[in-house]
Amino acid sequence: MNAIAELPLPGSHSGIIDLGGIRIDLEARTLHRQGEIMSVGSRAFDILVVLAKAEGRLVTKDELMSAVWPRTVVEENNIQVHLSSLRKNLGSDRDIIVTVPGRGYRLTRRTVRPSCPHAEARFARPELIGREDALARISTMLAATQVLTLVGAGGIGKSALALEAARQWTAARAEPIFFADLARLDHPRSVQEAIARACGLPEHEPLDFSSLPERGLVFIDNAEHVIAHAAQIVDALAAANDGIRVLVTSREPLRIMSETLYRVDPLDVPRAGSTDAQALEHASVRLFLRRGRAVQRNLGDDSAQIGRIGTICRRLDGNPLAIELATARLAALGLEDIHRRLDDRMSMLAGGYRTALPRHQTLRANFDWSYGPLAAQEKTLLRRMAVFEDSFSFEALCAVACDDGLALATVIDAASELAAKSLLIVEYDGPVVRYRLSESMRAYALERLAAEDDSTAIAGRLARYLEHCADFSGADEANEPDTPRGLVVE
Question: Which residue, 139, 140, 438, 483, is the most exposed by fewest CB within 10 angstroms?
Answer without folding.
Answer: 140
